[in-house]
Amino acid sequence: MSTNNYEPRIVVFACNWCSYAAIDLAGTSRKLYPPNVRVIRVMCSGRVDPQFVLEAFKNGADGVIVAGCRPPSDCHYINGNIKALRRFTLFKRLLEELGIEKERFRLEWISAAEADKWVRVVNEMLEELRRLGPLKAEAVSV
Amino acid sequence: MIQEPRVGVFICHCGHNIAAKVDVKQVADYAKTLPNVIVSHHYVFMCSTVGQELIREEIKKHNLNRVVVAACSPSMHEPTFRTAIESAGLNKYLLEMANIREHCSWAHSDKEAATEKAKDLVRMAVAKASLLEPLEEEEFPVSPTVLVLGGGVAGMRAAIDLAEWGFNVYLVEKNPTLGGRAALTGWLTNNRRGADVVNNLINKIVDNKNIHVFTNAELVEFSGFPGNFKAKIKVNPRFVNEKCILCGECEIECPIEVSNEYQYGLSRRKAIFFPFKAAYPPIYVIDQRVCIKCGECVKACQYGAINLAEQSLTLDLNVGAIVIATGYDPYHPPKGEYAYGLHNNIITLFQLERLLDEDGPTQGKLIIGGAVPKRIAFILCVGSRNTTPSSKNYCSRMCCTSTLINAIKIKEKYPDIDVYVLYQDINTYGNDETLYEQAGEKLVKFIKFEKPPTVDISPEGIVIDVYETTIQEEISIPVDALVLSVGMVPRRDQNELIATTRASCGEDGFIREVHLKLNPVEAPTHGIFLAGAVTGPKNIIESIRAGSAAASKVATLLSEGKVRTEPFTANVNEERCSGCRICVGLCPYKAISLREINDRMVAYVERALCMGCGTCSAACPSGAMQQYGFKDIQIMAQVVAATGGGIK
Amino acid sequence: MSKPVLVIGGGISGIQATIDLAKHGVEVYLVERNPSIGGKMAQLDKTFPTLDCASCILTPKMAEVLRYNNIKLLTYSEVQEVKGNVGDFTVKILRKPRYVDWDKCTGCGTCTERCPVKVPDEYNVKLGQRKAIYIEYPQAVPRKALIDYSHCLRLNPPPDLKEKAKGKPLCGACEKVCPTKAIDYNQQPEIIELNVAAIILATGLELYDASNIPEYGYGKYQNVYTNLEFERIVSSTGPTNGNIIRRSDGKPPKRIAWIQCVGSRDVRFNHYCSAFCCMAATKQAILAKELLPEVDTTIYYMDMRAFGKGFYEFYKRAMTEFGVKYVRGKVVKITERQDNKNLLLFYEDTIHSYMKKDEFDMVVLSVAVRPNRITAAPVKTDKGGFIQIMDPYMDTVTSTTEGIFVIGGAAEARDIPDSVTMASSAAIKASTIAKKCVVEQTIITSGERA
Amino acid sequence: MNNRPKVAFYWCASCGGCEEAVVDLAEKIIDVVSLVDIVFWPVAMDYKLSDVEALPDNSITVSFINGGIRLSEHEKVVRLLRQKSKLVVAYGACACWGGIPGLANQYSREEILERVYLTTPTTANPEKIMPPQDGYAKLGDVKIEVPTFLPELKPLDEVIDVDYYIPGCPPTPEVTWNAINVLLSGKLPDKGTVIGASNRSLCDECPLNKTKPENVLIKEFKRVVNYSPRADTCLLAQGLPCLGPVTRGGCGALCVKANMPCTGCFGPLENIHDYGGKALSFLASILDYENEEEIKREISKLPDVSGLIYKYTLPKSLLKNLLRSVRK
What we know:
With 142 residues, chain A is an alpha/beta fold.
């Protein structure tokens, strides 16, 4: 694959109350960022099952972001973000063991006001993904 | 059974807000090619009356059973479009929105790329929409009855407000009288007395037919869900009934004498006693723990008001909500802390308040150790702000103000007494600052300490040694009396309360509210409300205010006569569930418990308590727990659709 | 239907009271003089002691206001007159012209992009700019554009331009681009008259004018800021996108000082303590540390009033975890260095009783707050201008007039939890009155007939 | 010959435990043998591959195949069995999802061979003899055909069509017996079904489930190497990462009864997309800390996350295709 026209694809799981609102705010404030992200809304980052992230990678996502409210207490559901923190801290360990670059997964706390942070996270991740190249499932003939 | 999906896609131009950056026609054409999509339209303002009418017409014309609207953020118009499809006869949760404005046209400059992204967003929405199910917000009728736990100022105020609003209120107090700690507080700001405040509130309660007071009573069981809790109240025997006219003959004959907790141990009382002047109900009471049932009081009572055979009784109540207003305990210094317990003239602020109160053991005279002290000192932050090993980590909020009120009172009554206040910071916040000014004017001597002072007992009396920072020298202050301005701590019996009510406590040990800033009187468990110092130190005004606020929150829950559940609650497949309990401990609202079904223990979601975060579904190891509207297969479908097409 | 309740002021207190009332089943009018509800809290970046993002917790509440059918929101409106008694107040409200038909406006913002006039932005405490046609801020509720009459070229052209145009209408850019044809240059003020059962005053706070305090040089020295200005500077939605930079040279500061009790606890200005500034300054110092890890932060205070739930713990954390320095002392005066516009603080260290001097490149004044002036309602105020409460030990929120309640900063300088607690307290009392009004009226009517 | 059902057994990349498991049917094996004709069972009986080749297509009623596909020979034989069988059953964890040998999919073929033939501490191979990879070996002067080592291990159903699955490492006699009864009952379940085991997770049948506290939250992950669990309390609640909640039941909680946490050999329940992902999710969820540093600290004490959560299922994980690219 030629890396010149490689456009990384990022799947984002964003909690309804903080991160999704921040992404909305980025739009409302016309803060431009590259269109490589696809956002899936969940009520809370605590809803994000690691299986979803694996499914995203399996289907060709080059990067995945799970975004939630800032700990300890922004979470609309008291501590759903903490549940996400626990799961994805372990999840990062798994990726590391399996040899998948850590840059491909991010757990980010983005409050409803942090449109800038959203834009920065997207740009940073894109830059890293461009450097890494595609995460592509290769067919192996047996 | 879920119907075969028939999806209609409606794409909004939002004037040129979307249309300028997204080729809406191309997106609409693309949508037609997606599985399950029957029709696809684009229109200039989908949220307008015309746009909504278009959606309704198409639903009817094509028998659509799912709708995707690609427009602005769902936070903007999801309610609008839900209402629209509902009016066309669809369940309103059969709507999925694709956010092609905030997340697309407004955020990207390249029209081609934005159009491609919009297609993806529509594809993701269609994928999820195809798997959406109709959801119902269940409704439960509610009991217009409220249980208020705790008869202090916060609980009384909550009870009054609730009763005036029209609710039926059970006010349950563990002690034999209403009033709580405020009744013993003595002087307050504006020259008011705690006893008067309590008296005013009690008068309002007595006048109100909607309030049922149970003293000497406690909550022993609590279950159910918001709007329909079951509460079991145990009313302990008082042994004295309404025939009592407070003549006091019984008290004279009673042979048992114990320390009087209503004077913080400064005086003694009998086993049969009347707590204080304003106590309610105005009836004597026998302290079951110390009474030997000798029968002397029965003999003494001319009115036949005493029945030593009285038994406790239990009440089963069906209540819509509970207000927990059980208050706090004063910090009790361990023996030796600032020489507490080593000298009779070392007392706590709570005891001093009794001494200065006209209803107190000295009728308001400052007599400590048999004499009026010439020099008296206060040490602040006793038990608070980490000053000593056994003290708490927090500031107790009310002690500075209370100390200054009493210091000023002493100066007013006994201008010749030297009053010292040893402090770290004087926290007379807000308008209470005037007290600080007044105390200064009345020549109260303030000494700031960085390191807590030490107190020594010598043959001559009490000596306080403190490093005085401004002169940078250790100074000794001999005093005749020392008042320890102790703070507030969680009640000793709080753990029982937590176990019964499913409330929880925070790091400081006080009961935790759902959100410190914006929901200070609501517990995380829906239907449980918190008033007064049970959530942390508060003064009397603040506690009363919290009582009213809790009443307001109760009314927000019960005023409609019914409670509605969240649509996006969790739901258990009981056949699949193994009862592994992983979900139970994770639920922030304690909405999940185990219950027996066909001889097996399986998870059970109390829908009325579930707030719909989905954390249980994410953790459920067997996939038995699924969140409505955010089921695994629905989200997975979005994931697959999100990754399904290439960008350019 | 019961008689409605009027809430005056759409800050967090007013919003909370309104939502509670709506949930009690009472009709509520919420009047706000600014274009959007949100109040002071909407200008905050984060809140103490949890460091919650203010918008994360506030904006859902703002949006909630729009969701209830029994809430009538009147923003950009002012109460002009209040007459009557409990259960029967007659209120006149001036609805100022927006020059935009809000039924048509979708808040798309196209007009603001095209508008040629730039005006200092009130939301950003005039540190940033907005257009003459503007949406107050991105999360505004309602999210609608309005024209600021005094700066609009069309409505209020400067005399010289007017002359040149020779009677022809000027500009009109917004009208041309508005996709929904919502611009209405002919909109007129409206007077709305309401009969309400009870009134809740939630008129809030304003900052004391720091330039009244000569020794701190606010308004004179460029790098002296008010606490609210600093709040906008650290905010990611603020005029500097969350970059802390100096007014004088646009460079990030290396040392920032906070001065507490500026205008409060001061016999010359206001006797009272403003209650939240100690924690607000602590929070701001932490935010500064988060944004500029190398920055040195010092807070000059008289007493550290860390009295609320979690406050003392927060203060300790600021010291130990973030390295915020606290100096107990009164700053006597500030002077500015000519060469680099740094600021020299002269202060008395009140622990050691020394006079000292230190140099900072940014100073934030924790300015006192005072109640917003509200004169329309027949209530008594204390000498600080706060609305008096009849008996704080009975119901804590009733003003000197029965049926008129006062909450939040209008009653006393208070933090957010205290304000929302007051709001709910007032709501139950107001809705109790509103509900009774129906009953009483029915009785009166039937009595008259009989 | 009679009309008794014809049955074949075959093993691929497995430890042989599954073969033992069949024998472990004990006296029931007599019943089985009396009910069926065994036409192929290399471990136990002297049949040749040519005997199978000689059978007509679809003439074997059911073939039980255990082990994953790691050698070219496995592939060849299972394809043949598929052709000759009406039903193919993946028998045991390795055939179902790859099993423990599947953990090797984290490494390339070359890395594995090098490790096994050269660098393990117990290997003495001074001449550095490696298995031939061209499919032929020389025995003296004779060139003989030998199997080649495939690039990765595949579960059975990635090579041939599989009708049913019997989980376990190995399947317990009871599960095997249940499954045989299902197959012999004549009422065949839907294709792709797991047979013989439970449809709920192990906790459902675990004797310790009732000793679990209401809130299962733990402060540390303990390990059996340095912690002896009490026999009277749920092992998970004691801090051992027991995978019972995420694992299909049916074994009767054998390991737990022996004071060992479940390691997941019965695999996931039906609607779980990724066993390891789900195991990770519930395990991390109950780690009772709020603060990132503490969470990291506890997690860092887990020696081998992938080995813990994917002990039997790595080749079936959602990441299986990615592993091919990352292990290069």
